Amino acid sequence: MSVVLPQRPATRAGRAPAVVRLLVLSTFVVILNETIMMNAIPRLMDDLGVSEASAQWVSTAFMLAMAAAIPVTGWFLQRFTTRRAYASAMGVFLAGTALAAVAPSFEVLLVGRVVQAAGTAVMMPLLMTTLLTVVPPSDRGRVMGTVTLAMSVAPALGPAVAGVVLQAGSWRLLFVVVLPVAAAVTALGLRKLDDIGEPVVSTIDWPSVAVAALGFGGVVYGLSLFGGSGGTGRGVVVVAAGLAAIAVFVLRQRRLQRTGTPLMDLRTLGHRTYRLTLALLAACFLVLLGAMILLPLYLQHLRGLSPLETGLLVMPGGLAMGLLGPTVGKVFDRFGSRVLVLPGTIGSLVALAGFTQVSPTMPYWQVLALHTLLMVSLAATFTPAFTLGMGALPQHLYSHGSSLLGTLQQVASALGTALAVTVMSSRAGHLAAEGVAAGPAQLGGMKLAFAVSAALAVVTVVLAARLPNRLPAAHD
To answer: Which residues cross the membrane (predicted)?
Structure first.
């Protein structure tokens, strides 16, 4: 399956094309919703009469639906025009948001979250594919820097935005506030967007869709069971079943590649730079989500901060990440990846090592400084890695490369959350069994979880050292 892409005029220096700016804005709005409910769990428990384990599903169901839907986006984006894909994605997202806002029960709220996720799943691959098509290689780093706003800042700011909104009232406001913003962005996009490329008429392999949903969705669901009471054993079984389904999916795609109609073209993995950046970005998202789940627990459970205070404390790091994105892109365009990615991964390692020293009396300025260092370091890593990895692919594999990357991001995010919670809970339980008080036991669990994250950060340093500084001349 291939796409015929027309030549586009070069991007004017110093500015992203209008189509990319519109897609970044839209993607930021929809991806913000992935983590916006994290601070609303207590409100949901009180208003809808559900347990904490059940309430967590407002986030788990979103990730699960994303992991199941993203593999289809490679085919979807080749089959439909840019405007039609955008209209479909944002229309589905708006429908899910409206349903969640008026949900009379927890079950209906979950349906709304799943519908939201189905629309969100299309937006990041659509943004990446369009960017790579309309922006010349010499400017991709600078323009890709703006993508950092949607890719990493949106989920990082989700809990902070929720903390502010929840001060004003019900959890429903989280959706009521998003709905008109998303509707305005959708209307603007439909007025301004042009179609990029020509759609390719092709069939979809429905058995691949089913196996992908069972495989990637199963892995994310299984990982979500880790760390809960009695859930680890079931989680292992579900993850194993999901991995088996993914193995079947891979074998089927390899066979379909010979006929030219795979759901997800795995020939993307034949490009070494793409493989390296895929592994690096997965490890970075794993570390990021682990820190995102541990820090609120530390600040609220052990330091007694409110959700709003917690959100305000971590907000500067997320804002710094976003504001540095375009600058990081310009530096990459001029000097290449080595001056950014390796220092960035080392900075992440230093920040996580610092978090292993958390205590009941650690100064808040130190928490703020370590979190900001982590966010800035990840910003220095994300933009060059995305640009190198996706730029290493030929044009007809852009949509498949972004689809695989988006799927792996969801799996890595779920794994990061599961790993952090499991390590923390296991260590805390062990210490409690030895007679340690609840607070110090939980603190000991958090320290070990941060230490495991720091160990994973070592892997990112090794991968960063293997990345090329620039793509070969054939890609320029």
So the answer is: 18-37, 57-77, 89-111, 117-135, 147-166, 172-191, 203-223, 235-252, 273-299, 311-332, 339-358, 364-392, 404-424, 444-465
